[in-house]
Amino acid sequence: MPPLSVWMVRVALLHLGIGFTFGALMLFDKAIPTHPDIWRLWPLHIELTLIGWIVQLAMGVAFWIMPRFARLPNRYGRRTTLAWAAFALLNAGVLAVCAGNWWPSLADLTFAGRIAELSAVILFIIHLWPRIKPPGA
After folding, report:
1. Average of pLDDT values for 125-131?
2. Rounded Cα–Cα distance for residues 19 and 41 (Å)
C-alpha cells in the first residue's frame, strides 16, 4: 500500500474513533441526561464521521486501487503532490468546520473549511483523471 493511502486510512480511522466517541457520549446522555451542552457535539460527530472518515477512507482506497500505468512517473501518476495536497486540505477543512461549529465566534471557519474540502476533492479528481482509461488503452 502506498504511503499516502496508509496515511489517509489511518487518519480516517482516527476521525472514526473520535466521531464515534462523540456519538456514544450523546447516546449516553440520551439514556442518562448528564449535561445539555453535550448535544453541541452533534455537528462535530457528523463532520468527523461523514467527511473525515467516509470521504477520506474512499480517497485513500481509491489512490491505492485505481490502475497504475508504467508510463506514468512514479506509477501513481505525475501529480502525487496534488493527492498529498488533497489529503492536507481535506483534514484542514474538517478541523476548520469542527472549530467553526464548536466556537460560534469562529463561524467564518465553517465556510473556509467547506471550501478546503471542496478543493481537496477537486485536486484528488485532477490527480486520478489520467489513471482512468478504457480497457485495452
Report:
1. 88
2. 9
- The residue to which cell 482506497 is assigned: 61
Higher pLDDT: 43 or 78? It is: 43
Q: How far apart are CA 86 and CA 105, in angstroms?
A: 27
Q: Which residue has the cell 453541541?
A: 40
Q: Where do the structural domains in the chain lie, given as residue ranges?
A: 3-131
Predicted confidence band of residue 77 (pLDDT cuts 50, 70, 90): low
Using alpha carbons, list the distances in angstroms from residue 32 to 5, 18, 26, 28, 38.
Answer: 40, 21, 10, 6, 12
* Sign of the CA dihedral running 73, 78, 80, 81: positive
Q: From CA 40, how far away is CA 46, in angstroms rounded?
A: 11
- pTM tops 0.85: yes
Q: Is the pLDDT of residue 6 over 60?
A: yes
